[in-house]
Amino acid sequence: MSASKETEGAVAVITIRNPPVNALSQQAVESILKVLKEVQFDPAVKAIVICGENGKFSAGADIRTFENIGQKSDSLSHFLEDVNSMAEKSEKPVIAAIEGVALGGGLELALGCHYRVAHVKARLGLTEVLLGIFPGAGGTQRLPRLIGLLPALEMITTGKIVFAPVALKLGLIDSVTEDNTIKAAIHFAQNVIGKPLESRRLCTKPIQCPPNMETIFNDSKIKLKKLFHGAISHQLCVEAIRAAVQLPFAEGILKERELLFSIFNSEQARDQAKARQYAFFAERRVTKWTTPSGANWKSASPHPIGVAAVIGLGTMGRGIVVCLAKAQIQVIAVEQDGKQLEMGRKAVTKILERETLTMQQRGLALMSDSFGSITFTLDFNSLKNADLVIEAVYENMALKKEIFKQLSSICMPEAFLCTNTSGLNIDEIASVTGRPHLVIGTHFFSPAHIMKLLEVVRGYHSSPTTISTVINLSKVLGKIGVVVGNCPSFVGNRMMGPYLHQAIFLLEDGCYPEEVDKVLEEFGLAMGPFRMSDLVGLDVGWRSRMESGLTGPKLLPGALVRQREGKRYSPLPDILCEKGRFGQKTGRGWYQYETVGGRNAVPDPWVQNFLHDYRKAHTIKQKPTSQNEILEWCLYPLINEGFNVLEEEIASGPEDIDVIYNNGYGWPRHMGGPMFYASMVGLPKVLTKLEVFYENNPDIPSLKPSGLLKKLVKQGSPPLKEWRSQLGYQNSKL
Ligand SMILES: CC/C=C\C=C\CC(=O)SCCNC(=O)CCNC(=O)[C@H](O)C(C)(C)COP(=O)(O)OP(=O)(O)OC[C@H]1O[C@@H](n2cnc3c(N)ncnc32)[C@H](O)[C@@H]1OP(=O)(O)O
Hints:
Blueprint: E1 2-8, E2 11-17, H1 26-40, E3 47-52, H2 71-89, E4 94-98, E5 101-103, H3 105-112, E6 115-119, E7 123-125, H4 139-147, H5 149-158, E8 162-163, H6 164-170, E9 175-177, H7 181-192, H8 213-228, H9 232-246, H10 249-265, H11 267-285, E10 307-311, H12 315-326, E11 330-334, H13 338-361, E12 374-377, E13 388-391, H14 397-410, E14 416-419, H15 426-430, E15 439-444, E16 453-457, H16 464-476, E17 480-484, H17 492-509, H18 513-523, H19 529-536, H20 538-547, E18 563-564, E19 567-568, H21 572-578, H22 605-617, H23 627-647, H24 654-664, H25 674-681, H26 683-696, H27 707-714
Parallel strand pairs: 2-3, 3-4, 4-6, 5-7, 6-9, 10-11, 10-13, 11-12, 13-14, 14-15, 16-17
Antiparallel strand pairs: 1-2, 7-8, 15-16, 18-19
Helix pairs in contact: 1-2, 2-3, 4-5, 4-9, 5-9, 8-9, 9-10, 10-11, 11-24, 12-13, 17-23, 18-23, 23-26
Bound molecules: ligand LTDHYY67.
Ligand LTDHYY67 is lined by residues 20-21, 23-24, 29, 59-64, 76-77, 80, 101, 103-105, 127-128, 131, 136-137, 284.
Subunit structure: Monomer.
Domain 3-hydroxyacyl-CoA dehydrogenase NAD binding: 308-486
InterPro entries: 3-OHacyl-CoA_DH_NAD-bd, 3HC_DH_C, 6-PGluconate_DH-like_C_sf, ClpP/crotonase-like_dom_sf, Enoyl-CoA_hyd/isom_CS, Enoyl-CoA_hydra/iso, NAD(P)-bd_dom_sf
């Protein structure tokens, strides 16, 4: 961990060294300061270049040192600001040579420099807000002075990262190079030696402000509240930028410091920051997968995938084709039916056109011919050329088995066979092939080209190489792959089950869909259970319940309306479906919509009357339910199922579950994920509540507290990072 100096003629090159990402620890900043002082006083040095070792400028503060967030991170920011200020005041030109990343404190350091030269592929951003803090080393004061109020407001409040070409357009950097960045920066430095520096010092620059600033700040706060559901740091960013506009630079720096300090002083803001930092490391932790049999990320090497095939061009298949093509993988897209194939081709082309436009807007000159080529075909035999096949037909075991039987004989013997399913048994599908070790589940989330999560479902026979290949593929696709075990509905949907049932029981007991949704959305979930069900389509669950005989023609005669095999059952969603209310797709569901396919959910008086009549018909007494009761009643059973999933070794650690929920189910990152949330609430409290719920509702088995939860409480509720050791897995490094 150091910064070193070399000289190239009259130019001193300071290199930050702290592998793997040149994070700015206390020691690293001390070292930069020391070398910077040294070169300031060296008469032979006429200009200074600052760069990072191994193609990365700096990923900002060392997040690992934030563990006990408080004064320490606060003073680290002040310290970095001292360095920034020294660079800014230097009488010799200081040039940041940005390769790879300049993020958070890394970009703040670059803003203290007089000039910035970046490699064309470099990424720049003030990402602090995504870790629950905000730029505290002058970033909120310098960025608006450099690129203007509105772009700075957007970058700082959302943590948006821009590529060098966009940064150049914004005026964030002065030059872009496709060649050696350090050499380009040295050359740049040589050209500016002796030129006046006053106009290059951001601390002296006025901010160009539009006249309606107050409206801009207020609108921004409202927008951020909706977007980030009550996360405090985003709001504070706006206040810091307001200070940049209203105060002289030095006072603005003091205000920035005061606001940052307020995060460390508020328990709620501190918890949100802890949760976000946990979520960051949890995403890295899940790449180091393990299975109960002892296979792990180190024990297998992934195979590269040059050609991938997708079978079925419905909504999921189309999205999967798009993400493979975007990753420049050659795709064979197969359909059974000519009309479906044509519709699929058109839909994929349309999405890729939109993606091209977005890429261009983001400064990535990626034209459609830079996507992997796609062959649309009805010919199943073309699958013989694929390294990996993803079957994405609808959820029907017989159909999937039929397809896998064919794949087994058509595909290369070493080809990997994946099934995109949200809950079917992988082993049953693998059993019809002659290569169960190469079969694995890939549960994509809709829309597949956008959602980051991929549940990678290991079957009993899936080999470590197969797991490793698909996890690697998920990274290539820009997704986060989480390895999970094979059980009905896997991890995410399995935990959703009790949550959705609980929400529906609340309707029987006196709540309305909009009331329940409001509580969960205020908690931070992207969508409450009823809006989400309307989006997914109520018919999906209805079909599956009919299939399993819970409702419809297969229901055994004499079954009670509100009970199945002695367990509480609510027929409410079945009745809605019988009335043709499938959600957004029919314009009616738990809500009403302005049109068929509309998205704006409006409370429906029909639903209210229907619930009223239903309660009356079943003589259910309406119970008043507080917001807190709604929250606990819905979330604690979801968490409880998470503990069951851990106990059964379906997920290998709490981080896996949290990554799944943060990236696939709209869980608010500033709440860390359901398991992290449970650890913050306190396991004894969750357990006690579940015990009371179960005692009062013995006909709801999902309320029965999980054995693992009880065990952890009995052991004195160890911190989350120790739960893994209770499962026989290696200890978490978090
Ligand atoms: C002196 C401080 C003064 C002011 C304070 C300012 C506040 C901040 O700067 S907050 C930090 C802001 N920085 C970020 O948000 C960047 C976070 N990192 C990333 O986004 C990515 O890691 C990446 C830099 C884009 C690299 O991505 P990738 O190539 O996919 O590799 P990863 O697997 O993500 O990371 C590799 C390895 O590095 C660890 N790591 C990354 N960033 C940091 C960091 N800032 N601090 C500490 N460690 C970091 C990451 O955990 C990985 O470690 P493993 O042990 O291999 O898992």
